[in-house]
Amino acid sequence: MNLILLGPPGSGKGTQAKKIVERYHIPQISTGDILRAAVKEQTPLGKEAKAYMDQGKLVPDEVVIGIVRDRLKAADCKNGFILDGFPRTVPQAEALAATLQTMNRTIDYVVSIDVNNEELLKRLTGRRTCRGCGAMYHLIFDPPRKEGVCDRCGGELYQRDDDKEETIKERLRVYDAQTAPLIAYYRDKGSLRTIDGVGAMEQIFQAIVKVVEG
Ligand code: AMP
C-alpha cells in the first residue's frame, strides 16, 4: 500500500502516520523528520535546509526530491510506504510520479486531512519540545506535569523556531500557496480522499482505515 498523507502543518499527519505504521507495518517517510535530523547532525544537507526551515519556507524542490528518491529505493519500502509532508509542491508531485513509474509502482491513495486555520494556529503555537529527549507536549492538549519540564527526562521544554507564531503564519501561508494546489492535482487524478481532521485522534484514524480498507 502506497499512501500520501496531505494536510497543513498541525493537521496531525505525523501522528496518524505513526498509527498507520503500527497497523500496516509500512515505513513512514517524513521529509520534515529527515531534514530535522540533518539539521541536528549539522550535515551539509542540514546546513542548507536550516535557514529555510527556521523561516517557515520550503526547502528547494530538488533537495527534497533527491531525499525521497533515495529513501523509496530502500528495502523496507518494498511492501509500501506512507509519505508524510511530501510532496508539498506540484513539481514534487510530478517528480514523485516519474520516480514511481520507473519502479513500476503507483500511489494508491492520497488522504487529505482537513483542519481549519484557527484550529491549526491554536495547535501549533502551543507545541513544546524537550531539548533532552525530543518528547513533544502541548500547553493545552497535552501539558507536562510541571511547567517547562519534560515528564520523561526532566529536560527543558522549548518552542521550536518553526513553531513560533510568525513562522507558523508563514508556514500556513506557504501551505495555501504551494501545497493546497495538490488537492486539486490529486482530485483530478482520482486518488484523493478527504477526511475531517478535527476530533479525537482515534476517530480520525478510523476514517483513514475506512479509506484504505473500504
Ligand atoms: P514538517 O515537519 O513536515 O512540517 O516540515 C518542517 C519543515 O521542513 C517545513 O516547514 C519545510 O521547511 C521543510 N520541509 C519538509 N518537507 C518538505 C518538502 N516536501 N518540501 C520542502 N520543504 C519541506
Structural overview:
The chain is 49% helix and 15% strand. The protein has helices spanning 13-24, 31-40, 44-54, 61-72, 90-102, 117-125, 165-179, 181-189, 201-213; strands spanning 2-6, 28-30, 81-84, 109-114, 127-130, 136-138, 157-158, 192-196. Strands 2-3-1-4-8 form a five-stranded parallel sheet, sandwiched between helices. Strands 6-5-7 form a three-stranded antiparallel sheet. The chain is globular, with a radius of gyration of 17 Å. The chain starts with a strand and ends with a helix. The mean pLDDT is 95. The structure holds adenosine monophosphate (AMP). Adenosine monophosphate binds at residues 9, 31-32, 35, 52-53, 56-59, 64, 85-86, 88, 92, 162, 171.
Structure in a nutshell:
With 214 residues, the chain is α/β, with parallel strands linked by helices.
What would you call the structural class? alpha/beta
Bound molecule kinds, no repeats: adenosine monophosphate
* Shape category: globular
What's the CATH superfamily, by name?
P-loop containing nucleotide triphosphate hydrolases
What would CATH call the architecture? 3-Layer(aba) Sandwich
* Uncertain ranges: none
CATH topology value: Rossmann fold
Give the overall average pLDDT: 95
What about the largest sheet? 5 strands, parallel
Ends apart, CA distance between termini: 13 Å
Give the total of domains. 1
Helix proportion range: 40-55%
From N to C, what is the helix and strand string? EHEHHHEHEHEEEHHEH
Q: How big a fraction of the residues is strand?
A: 5-15%
| Count of discrete alpha- or pi-helical segments spanning 4 or more residues | 9
Care to count the β-strands? 8
Sheet with most strands: strand arrangement:
2-3-1-4-8
Radius of gyration: 17 Å
CATH class: Alpha Beta
